[in-house]
Amino acid sequence: MNRLASIPSEQDLEIGNNLFSDFGPEVPVAIAGAGSWGTALASVLASNGHTVRLWARDADLISRLCSDAENRQYLPGIPLPASILPTSSLPQALDGARVVVFAVPCGAVRETARLAAEFAAPHTLIISAAKGLEEHTALRMSQVLEEVMPGCTPRVAALSGPNLAVEMARRAPTASVAASTNPAAARAVQQLFVSDPSPAFRVYTGSDVVGVELGGAIKNSIAIGAGILEGMGYGDNSRAAFMTRGLAEAIRLGAAQGAQVSTFLGLSGVGDLIATGGSRLSRNYRVGFALGQGRTLPEVLEELGQVAEGVPTTRVLCDLAARCGVEIPLCAALHAILFEHKSIPEVIQQLMQRPPRDEHDF
Fold first, then answer.
1. Which of 7, 44, 117, 351 has the most CB atoms within 10 Å of its CB?
2. According to the model, what pLDDT value does residue 329 have?
3. What's the CATH code, domain 210-352?
4. Which amino acids are annotated catalytic?
5. What does the domain layout of the chain look like in residue ranges?
C-alpha cells in the first residue's frame, strides 16, 4: 500500500465541493475525545455559535462534565458553554452531526473511527485533530481514518498548529492550519472556526496533508528533547540548537514522504515546535523536563496522567526513518534515552561528537 499522500479523483473533488457548498453558521459538531484538546476545541466552536456534542468513553468523566459545567480533570478553570453537550454515547454524539472531530489520543483513533463509521452520516466533514503516528503501522491519522472509513478522503482535513489547549480555551489569539487534498474541505474547516465580531482562533488552509501531519507528530518528540535540556539546566542555547536541528530532521523525513519543505516553515512545523518546545503547558515538554531532572519515564508518565504523544511517536519515527533510509540522529538519541535506558549525558556527548557537516545538508 502506498503510504504517501492520497490523491483524490476529480469525481471525489466534485463530491466534496457539493457537500460543503452550504456550510454556514450554527453547524452541529461531534467531537470524539474530551481531554484538554477536545474540550478546548469544543469551547471555541461553542463560542462561535455551534452546538457541540462532546464524547468520551468514560461515563464518569461525562457525568462530572455535566454536573460541574467544567472539565476539572483535563482543563480546570474553563467554564463549559451551555451549547456543549457531553455524552458517553457515540451514536448520540454523531446523530445529525455535520462535522466529526477526532481529538482522541493517536492510539485510540482507529478504534474510535471504527465505531464512528457505523453511525456517522456519509456527508460529514471529518477533522483529524490528533497529532502523532500510529504504532506498528507508522500511519498518519488521516491515513488511519481513510482505512477505517473508506471513501472519506475528500471529506478529511487535518488540523494542526501551535495550539496549546489551555491558551485556546482562554481565547488567547491562536492560529492553525487545516490541510486537505480537497480544497473545499479545508475551506469548510476554516469557515467553521470563523467568529464575529471578536475572533480568537484563526485558521489558514493548505493542501499538504503529509507535511501538516508529520510536523504535528515530530514536534512532540523534539519537545521532549527540548524539555530534557532545560531540565538539565543547559539553557536556551542548547534548546534552540536542538529544536532547529530537529526541524531539519522533520524536513528530511517529510520530504521522503512527499511533503513540501515550506510546510515545515509554517504553523504546523516551526510554529508548533516553538509552542511545544518551550512551554510548561506542553505535556511533552514537561515529560522531557522531568527526565532531565533525573526522574524515570514510568514515574513521569504516571504522574502526568495524560498521554504524551511524543513518547510512542519517537519509536515510530525511528522505524519510519529506517524504512525510508533517512538519518534522524536527534530522534534516535531520544529513542536511546526513552527506550534503551541510555544515560542522558552520554547521549548528548555522542551527539556533540558526530562528524562535522554542512548546515544545509538535508
1. 44
2. 97
3. 1.10.1040.10
4. 219
5. 10-207, 210-352
